[in-house]
């Protein structure tokens, strides 16, 4: 734990990357998955991609969901390894199943954008998005689910639910997110007017 606080810094502990590496390495040698993952993040930030991949891969295989998510990203981009999109999707699914919010959002987006997705996958995408909204107050998840409900991607059209999600997104969104929300809101208003 001390290694993590040295890595990111806190009110009581100044960021110290050398000390972070020392503590994280010692804990990783004892097969502590979270320490392996954080050591991988440190190596990644320092541009040591092969060492980062090794640590993050070991932590992911040990079942640590944040490492599984990071491994999915590394495999997708070929960071410290060969690009492996199938492996990336596997680790993304593993992390999402364990409740890693970023993985849940990415997995839901993949499912919603897959032309071959079917009912069960679309239902799972909706569950992931609702959980990401509930536990992370994620504006991108709110937008994604709003669009899916408005467009009928989930097998039904729910403009009221879509509008409620867009309103919530506008309440929590930053300037950049608000610029994304505005045209979606206008499109939703036109959809409602055409029904009334």
Please describe what this structure looks like.
The protein has helices at residues 2-8, 17-29, 33-45, 49-61, 65-77, 85-97, 101-112, 119-136, 139-151, 159-172, 175-195. It is mostly helical. Helix 2 (17-29) runs antiparallel to helix 3 (33-45), helix 3 runs antiparallel to helix 4 and helix 9 (139-151) runs antiparallel to helix 10. It is elongated, with a radius of gyration of 20 Å. 39% of the residues are buried.
Secondary-structure map:
Blueprint: H1 2-8, H2 17-29, H3 33-45, H4 49-61, H5 65-77, H6 85-97, H7 101-112, H8 119-136, H9 139-151, H10 159-172, H11 175-195
Helix pairs in contact: 1-2, 2-3, 3-4, 4-5, 5-6, 6-7, 7-8, 8-9, 9-10, 9-11, 10-11
Oligomer: single chain
Secondary-structure element series: HHHHHHHHHHH
- The helix/strand class is mainly alpha
Rg is 20 Å
Count of DSSP-assigned helices: 11
Main beta-sheet annotation: none
Task: For this entry, give a set of tags.
mainly alpha, 196 residues, 11 helices, single chain, 77% helix, 0% strand, elongated
């Amino acid at each position: 734990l001390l290694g993590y606080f040295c890595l990111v810094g806190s009110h009581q502990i100044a960021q110290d990357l050398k000390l972070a590496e020392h503590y994280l390495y010692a804990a990783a040698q004892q097969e502590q998955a979270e320490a392996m993952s954080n050591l991988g993040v440190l190596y990644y930030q320092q541009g040591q991609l092969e060492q980062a991949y090794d640590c993050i891969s070991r932590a992911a295989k040990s079942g640590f969901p944040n490492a599984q998510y990071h491994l999915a990203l590394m495999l997708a981009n070929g960071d410290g390894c060969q690009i492996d999109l199938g492996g990336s999707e596997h680790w993304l699914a593993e992390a999402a199943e364990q409740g890693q919010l970023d993985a849940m959002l990415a997995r839901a987006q993949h499912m919603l954008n897959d032309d071959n997705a079917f009912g069960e996958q679309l239902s799972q995408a909706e569950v992931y998005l609702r959980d990401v909204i509930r536990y992370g107050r994620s504006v991108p998840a709110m937008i994604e689910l709003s669009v899916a409900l408005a467009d009928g991607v989930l097998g039904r059209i729910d403009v009221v639910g879509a509008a409620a999600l867009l309103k919530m997104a506008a309440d929590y969104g930053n300037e950049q997110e608000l610029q994304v929300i505005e045209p979606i809101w206008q499109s939703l208003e036109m959809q409602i007017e055409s029904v009334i």
